[in-house]
Structure to design on (230 residues):
């Protein structure tokens, strides 16, 4: 049962992995909140008022105060709400490592993932695919070290880094459909393969990951994405 929250609203968009992150965190913390789907046509006054710098989702409004940027919001949720498990590790070094890899995902790896949907030429697709697979190999190795033999990057439960990467699983499935290849599988990334199954089936997550066909339709409309590989 969700814990009562003091005026928590979340402005998001269903295709956005970044907007999914605070929703997962709030679910894990058992915090009740009001979700507001942003239309972008045009951008709502609430979004522009709440995030005048970047003018983008997600934005969480807590006690009438806006917090922006997905990973910043997740950290805020972890610090403010104590009704669920810790999302960031308590050990300073482990916490730094989790933040490092989350930053890597956002600043380097995600551009390769989204690049597959945006690719207009075979060369662009090949470059994006190379970056995606190289990044997953690094994350597979990191998972082995960070999880310490447990089910998640966060240990026994979903944590900060799980949220950062797991929010992208819907778009990884889109990339797999478009290319006809499995980027997370039992052979090349066995750790991430089992992790993805656990993450996707968790009660805090399973209703939030968009259906692949729906995301494909969005990608075609937004980026002019070509038909999936046969």
């Amino acid at each position: 049962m969700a814990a009562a929250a003091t005026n928590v609203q979340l402005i998001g968009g269903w295709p956005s992995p970044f907007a999914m992150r605070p929703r997962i965190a709030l679910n894990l913390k058992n915090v009740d909140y009001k979700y507001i789907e942003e239309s972008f046509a045009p951008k709502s006054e609430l979004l522009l008022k709440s995030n005048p710098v970047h003018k983008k989702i997600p934005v969480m409004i807590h006690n009438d105060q806006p917090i922006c940027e997905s990973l910043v919001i997740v950290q805020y949720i972890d610090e403010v709400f104590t009704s669920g498990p810790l999302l960031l590790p308590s050990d300073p070094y482990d916490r730094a490592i989790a933040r490092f890899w989350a930053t890597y995902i956002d600043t380097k790896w995600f551009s390769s993932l989204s690049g597959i949907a945006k690719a207009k030429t075979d060369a662009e697709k090949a470059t994006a695919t190379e970056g995606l697979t190289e990044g997953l190999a690094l994350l597979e190795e990191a998972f082995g070290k960070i999880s310490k033999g447990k089910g998640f990057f966060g240990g026994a439960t979903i944590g900060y880094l799980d949220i950062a990467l797991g929010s992208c699983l819907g778009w990884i499935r889109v990339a797999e459909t478009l290319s006809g290849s499995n980027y997370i599988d039992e052979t090349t990334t066995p750790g991430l393969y089992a992790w993805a199954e656990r993450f996707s089936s968790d009660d805090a997550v399973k209703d939030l990951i968009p259906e692949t066909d729906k995301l494909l339709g969005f990608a075609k409309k937004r980026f002019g994405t070509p038909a999936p590989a046969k």
